[in-house]
Structures are given as C-alpha cells and as structure tokens.
Write a structure and sequence with these properties.
This protein is mostly helical. 69% of the residues lie in helices and 3% in strands. The chain contains 27 helices and 5 strands. It has helices spanning 3-30, 35-41, 44-54, 56-81, 85-106, 116-122, 127-138, 156-169, 183-193, 204-236, 242-253, 259-268, 271-287, 294-309, 317-335, 339-366, 384-400, 406-428, 438-466, 470-496, 503-509, 518-526, 543-555, 562-567, 577-586, 600-607, 618-622, and strands spanning 511-512, 514-515, 533-536, 592-595, 614-617. A 3-stranded parallel beta sheet has the order 3-4-5. It has a two-stranded antiparallel sheet with strand order 1-2. A hairpin with a 1-residue loop joins strand 1 (511-512) and strand 2 (514-515). Helix 1 (3-30) runs antiparallel to helix 2 (35-41), helix 11 (242-253) runs parallel beside helix 20 (470-496) and helix 13 (271-287) runs parallel beside helix 15. The longest helix has 33 residues, at 204-236. The radius of gyration is 26 Å and the shape is globular. The termini are far apart.
Length: 623
C-alpha cells in the first residue's frame, strides 16, 4: 500500500469516526442525553473543510459563531411556528454534522490530517480545558466537592427562570416586553430541555442545575481553547516553530482557570459574560485570518456583532471595529466579491441591522435607564482597562512592526473600541454620583480579560523578536507565560484585595455555597413546584440563600410574580412576622415553614389566619 493510499484511508477513517460520533450524540440527545455534546461536535467536519483552505483560526471561529447564530434563529422559528424545539434542534444539528461529514467524504483529499508539527503547536491549547473538565468530572466523585452549588451564585436563579421561559414557549419570542438579550437563554433553554420530559416535578431544579453546570463547564473549556489559540496565533506571525507556539498555547489556555477570568463570573452568577467572552474571542480569532478570506471574515464579524447584541450589547463595538479594519485593508477585494460570497455578505449585514433596529433599539429606548443602574459588580481600579489597553498597544507596535501581521491592526482596533465603549458608558452615567456604575465596571472587566489574552500572545512575540537562539526563545517564552499566568492569579489580590482562589480549587474543596453541596441539596429537596416551602429562624446559616432560591423557583417566571421575586431579595436579617406572612401569601398560601421557633404555628394562625401555613420543626425536617 502506498503512502497516498494510507493517507486516503486515514482521512476516510477520520471522517467516518466523526460521522459516528455525531450520530451517537444525536441518538443520545433523543433519549435524554446532554444536547451540548451534539451542538459541540456537529460543526467539526466543517472545521476540517474550512481549515484545509483557510487555516486553524478561521476553521475554529467561523463554524462556532455561525452555529450559535443558527441556534438562536431556529429557536425563534420554533416559537413562531409551534414546531417542537428540541426535535428541531436535534434534527437540524444531526443534518449539519452528517452533511459536513458527507461533504468531506466527497472531497476527502481536502481533509488534512494534522501533522506532528501541527499537533505540537495547537494541541496544547486544550491543556486548560482538560484541567477544567477533569475538575468538574472529579467533583461528582470527590467527597465534599461542589457538584452543582458552584453555579448557584448571584444571578444564576434568574438565568434558570429565563431558560425555563424558553422551554415553556418552545423557543424565543421578541417584543417590547420580552428579553432583549436572549442568547444566554437560548443556550441554557436547549440544555435544560434535553431529557426534561422524563424528570419528576420534585427533581426539576436538580435537573436544571445539573444541565446548567454542564453547560457552564463546557463554556469555560471553550474559552480555554480559544484563549490558547488566539495567543498562539499571534506569536505564530513571528515564528513557525511548533514548540514555541505550543508553549504559548498551553500557557494562555490556563488563563481562564483563574479567578479574574472565570472565578469572578461564577461568584456573581454572570453566566452571560461567559457566552460573551466566547463570542469576542472567536471574533478576534476569526479576524486574524482576514487576509485569507476578507469577505468571509467580514461576514462572520457581522454575525458576531448580532450575537453580542443578543447577549451583552455594549460589546458590539469590538467586532464592529475589527470589521472596519477588514474593510479598510481589503476594500478592493471586497468590491470584487460576486455570486454566493456577495449574497452571504449582504445577508450578514442585513440580519445585523434588522436585529439591531427591530429588537435592540426599542429595548434601549424603553430601558435606557438600565445603562445607569448601580447593580452588583466588583469595583476594579479605574485605570485597569487603560493600563491593559496601553500595554497591548505598545507591545503590539514593538513586537509586530515590520511584519504582515493582522494581530497588530486587530490589537490597535480592539484597544480603540474598548476605550470608545467605556467612554460611551461613562458618558451615559455622567449624572450619577459616580459614573462607574454596573455597566462601565463590567465592560472594563470584560475588555480587560480579552486584552490579557492578547497580551499573552504579544509578550512571547516580543521575546521571539528579541532573542535569536531557538533554545533561548523557548525558555524566554515559557518564562513569559509563567509570569503572565501568575500575574493574573496574583493581580486581583494585590490590586483589589480580593480572594483569588482558582474556581477549580474551590469546586473540589466544596467552597461555594456552604460545605460541598449540602445547601444546594437542601434547596433542591425543598424546591417542589407542587408544594411551597420556606425557612424561618431555622438555624441554617445559609437560610437567606435557601429562601431566595425557594421563592424565586416558586415564582417560576421572569414575566410574572414580580412581587414574590422582589421579596426574595429582602429576607436577610429580618425577624418581622409580617414579612413571613406576606411571603406566604405571595406564594399562594399553604406554605410549609421550617423553623425552630416554639409556638410559631400559633403566632402565624393569629397574624395571618387563612393562609394555611404549616410549621414543621427545622431539625426534624432536616433529619
């Protein structure tokens, strides 16, 4: 057998394995398995097809962003037509995946098997994801670890309700009273819908939290891969040595494991920022390949802009700036685009404008005051984003000048867009006691995270430019990556005085909501949609958190029961019996009250007769 024949058979075997994996994932999803696996692997055959002509960066980013856009579009269609949401998604993604495999078979020669050099360069970008997913898997077997409690902080309860709205409606609905940023709910809604029909009502919250934890874990892993690939792609513009590139990819892929990148949003329940970071990093990665296909890259930036409008609108300036750079440097090539390429480009901009004008603009006009809301976010130093922006701009100019590197233009565009976005948000909040309200603080942090990833590519690029010996370059690059990761670990503690333990360590230690999942399991056990429960002077240290989840889940809607959801935020430190009576009434009466207070049953009968509340001993109920 010749080398060519062996290569041909190896390519066919790879495509066949992908097709079998996609078919297995689809069948598993039909029988209640996690649909996230199907959504993740279905675009892979198209990655191979694109990578053969456009390179790794575009092969990873374009299918990812386009598949997310398509998922949102499908859920909008299912809600409008009444077609079963889960069946539509499973069917369509099976077709996409198997269709991509068929396309690869028909042109199997364009499928490139990764060489040893390519594996050394790009496989290390999986390091962070492997560590993270290994930790999440271990949390299911390590005694005292947090399996679901780590996804129950801050805004997570509201995220669950938004996702349930998607399930109840069979998709997403647009309108003045609807969620104007539905992408987060799209991903969560599809995830919790999988296997939900066979779950008993008393186990629905555990099912939803488990699906939520799995989805969050996958997104952090995806951010690890994207961070490693972005940084490696930047340094690749100066060297093609696989080992050097691989060192950068491995180091940068571990950045999302730090508190500053993933621990902060886990602590506050900022799940939407994980979705936004995936989109922004993928958009920047896509931009790095604009010279190989400016029309495709520009179209993908338009789709990325729509996705950001649908998850966290202030970030839309970032892909817009990258798109402007593509136009500025490739306008002649863009003017020559014809036929399918032209139609794709026109559609990309048409859908972005349609979503922005029909959905986002009315919401901004109706809810404009929200952009000045105080909210809950860490008050990072005001110089943080300017510092990272200036550092990135200076390093890019020094390290990449004289090279035909798209990373230089992309970095400068990203820095300019970050400054403009922060300036606009501060201007909107100018009349507040401090203009640094929720949105400017969160924007500054998100932009800083992406700039840190870019810096993780620029710093080793500078080392490669300065040092000549291969050995010295590799040692210098390794040292630069160690310094970068350690700086991101230490910076929040030194600069802001914050607890910066890595989220992976906290998950294994069970240090999120109480000890291990004890509190989470109590919430799950009492969150019965057919019987309301509440704790009152029960002796439970985390009583306010437990009650917050019980009341929010009993509301079971982001569009209704506003008074109940509002009351859930105000229970800490109160012993006013009138508050308990009101909460029982808001929950419809008949609530079981878990308490250690002697005579509470008689007090409730006198204070709020007719509510049908039943008091049980908290210790006995816990036992």
């Amino acid at each position: 057998m010749t080398v060519t024949q062996r290569s041909h058979r190896a390519r066919l075997a790879l495509v066949a394995a992908l097709a079998l994996a996609i078919a297995a994932a689809a069948i598993w999803a039909v029988f209640g398995g996690p649909i996230g696996i199907l959504l993740l692997i279905a675009p892979v055959p198209w990655m191979f097809a694109i990578g053969a002509r456009r390179g790794v960066a575009l092969a990873i980013s374009a299918p990812l962003l386009l598949s997310w856009w398509l998922l949102a579009a499908v859920l909008a269609a299912t809600a409008a037509t009444g077609v079963p949401m889960l069946a539509a998604v499973i069917t369509l993604w099976a077709i996409i995946g198997l269709g991509g495999a068929a396309a690869c078979v028909s042109r199997v020669d364009v499928v490139r098997l990764p060489s040893a050099a390519s594996l050394v360069a790009w496989l290390p970008s999986l390091l962070g994801a492997v560590i993270w997913l290994g930790t999440v898997v271990a949390s299911h077997v390590v005694p005292g670890a947090s399996r679901i409690g780590w996804v129950m902080g801050g805004d997570s309860a509201n995220n669950i309700l938004f996702a349930r709205e998607v399930v109840y409606r069979g998709g997403i609905v647009f309108g003045p009273e609807e969620n104007p940023v539905p992408l987060t709910s799209v991903l969560m809604g599809v995830s919790i819908a999988s296997g939900r029909d066979g779950v008993a009502p008393q186990q629905l919250l555990e099912h939803d939290l488990s699906a939520f934890a799995g989805l969050w874990a996958l997104l952090v892993a995806l951010i690890c891969v994207l961070a490693g690939t972005v940084a490696a792609s930047i340094v690749r513009s100066l060297t093609l040595r696989p080992l050097t590139i691989g060192i950068v990819a491995a180091g940068a892929s571990c950045l999302p494991l730090t508190w500053f990148v993933s621990g902060y949003p886990i602590e506050f329940g900022f799940f939407n920022t994980m979705v936004a970071l995936v989109v922004v990093l993928a958009a920047f990665l896509c931009f790095l390949s604009y010279r190989t296909g400016p029309a495709l890259v520009l179209a993908v930036q338009a789709f990325a802009a729509t996705l950001l409008l649908a998850v966290w609108s202030p970030l839309v300036l970032l892909p817009a700036a990258l798109g402007l750079v593509v136009v500025a440097f490739s306008w002649r090539g863009l003017l020559s685009v014809r036929r399918l390429g032209l139609w794709v480009l026109l559609f990309a901009f048409a859908q972005m404008l349609a979503f922005g004008i029909a959905v986002v603009l009315p919401s901004v006009l109706a809810l404009g005051d929200f952009l000045t809301a105080q909210g809950g976010a860490h008050g990072f130093r005001k110089v943080m984003l300017p510092f990272f922006g200036l550092a990135a701009a200076v390093l890019a100019i020094i390290a990449l000048r004289g090279h035909r590197s798209s990373a230089l233009a992309g970095t400068l565009a990203f820095v300019a867009a970050s400054g403009a976005g922060l300036g606009i948000l501060l201007f909107i909040s100018r009349n507040e006691p401090s203009p640094w309200t929720y949105y400017p603080l969160k924007f500054a942090w998100l932009a800083s995270v992406v700039l840190i990833v870019i810096l993780a590519g620029l710093l080793p690029a500078l080392v490669v430019r300065v040092l000549r010996s291969h050995t010295a370059q590799n040692l210098g690059v390794a040292a630069a990556m160690v310094v970068t990761v350690c700086a991101v670990i230490v910076m929040p503690a030194v600069a802001f005085g914050l607890d910066t333990r890595a989220p992976a360590a906290r998950i294994i230690d069970g240090d999120y909501l109480g000890e291990g999942d004890v509190v989470a399991e109590q919430v799950v056990a009492l969150a019965d949609p057919e019987q309301s429960h509440i704790l009152w002077d029960s002796g439970e240290h985390y009583e306010p958190a437990v009650n917050f989840w019980l009341m929010t889940m009993w509301a079971d809607s982001m569009n209704e029961n506003f008074d109940l959801r509002s009351a859930a935020y105000g229970l800490e430190g109160t012993e006013d019996l009138a508050v308990l009576c009101r909460n029982i009434e808001l929950m419809g009466g008949g609530t079981i009250v878990h308490s250690r207070v002697p005579g509470l049953q008689q007090q409730l009968d006198e204070a709020c007769p007719g509510t049908g509340a039943e008091v049980v001993d908290a210790q006995a109920a816990a036992g």
